[in-house]
Each structure stands twice: as C-alpha cells, then as structure tokens.
Amino acid sequence: MAGPVLAGSHKTKNGLSAAQLKVLDNRASEQYRDSVRLQPQPIYTPSKWGAQPYRGNYTGPYLDMAREAALTHNVPVDLFLRLVQQESNWNAGAVSPKGALGLAQLMPDTAKLLRVDALDPKENLEGGARYLYQQYRRFNSWRLALAAYNAGPEAVEKHRGVPPYKETQDYVKAIWGS
C-alpha cells in the first residue's frame, strides 16, 4: 500500500515527485558548482593556417577591428593578428623606414590601389586584410601570401617561392612559424 500523498504533488514516470526532483537538483548543483571539467591541453600542429595561434599581449581597441577585417576578407584571424603584431606592434601611427604606414604597414601606393586611408586604423586593417587575401588568391598559399605582402608579389614570382631575402624569410618565419 502506498504512503500518504501530499496535496498538489504528483509522481513522474520514474516514481519521484516534483518536490523530490527539486531536492536532488539542488544537491547536484551545490555539489558540482565548483567542479572543473578536466580537458587536455590543446595541441597545435602546423596546418594551412600556420603553426601557432596569436599569443600577443595586445588587448586594445584595434584587436577587434583586426579580427573583423580578417573575417570580412576570409583571412585566418590568428594569422592576420600575428601579421599586425609583426608589422606595427599595434601602433596605428607606425611609419617604416621605407614609408609603410599604420597598423598593417601599407605602402602609400598599395593603400591608394586599395582605396583606403592608410592613416585611418579601421581602413588600414581592412586594406591589409584585403591585400593579404588577394596575395593568397594569387599564390594559393598563406605562406607565399605573407612573402608577397612583405617583399611584393613580383619577388615571389621571380623566385618561385619565398624570396631569399633575410628580411622576408625572417618575416614569414615570425608570422607563419616555419
């Protein structure tokens, strides 16, 4: 014979009342509130997007702009963030000895061709991401796109790969990882 039934309570399919389920739910939430799910450390292996994720310390306003520009122009986000880190160290006012300007270090003629204002951070990043993607489309390789971004596409074509210039080889290695 069944025991007394509380007014307003009803049994679920498994024979527990709503009140009993509530007690169990509360105990479970208290028990697991501070638990940590164990997960292995992520392993990064070389892929078509480079060997490592972006690990820079920059957290300012240009980071989201750079992410957005990369996504808009189909450039792997981590790759583009590493490029900006390498090019300008996130300095929107950076000017190279050769005259490259801004965060993505666009040459004035390149900025003009891309129809962007190289001194405007958002436009500079948009132009940099678009130009990098154009080089990727041209060479079908992110590694060669980086080399073309640094040394110019003609140098990549002439040498049928990453040009043998120390600056360009160091640049590609710093961003791509190999």
UniProtKB/TrEMBL annotation:
Report domain Transglycosylase SLT positions. 65-166
Q: Which Pfam families match?
A: SLT
Matching entries from InterPro entries are given as: Lysozyme-like_dom_sf (IPR023346), Transglycosylase_SLT_dom_1 (IPR008258)
Which domain of life does the protein's organism represent?
Bacteria
| Family listed | Belongs to the virb1 family. Belongs to the transglycosylase Slt family.
State the protein's name. Answer: Lytic transglycosylase domain-containing protein
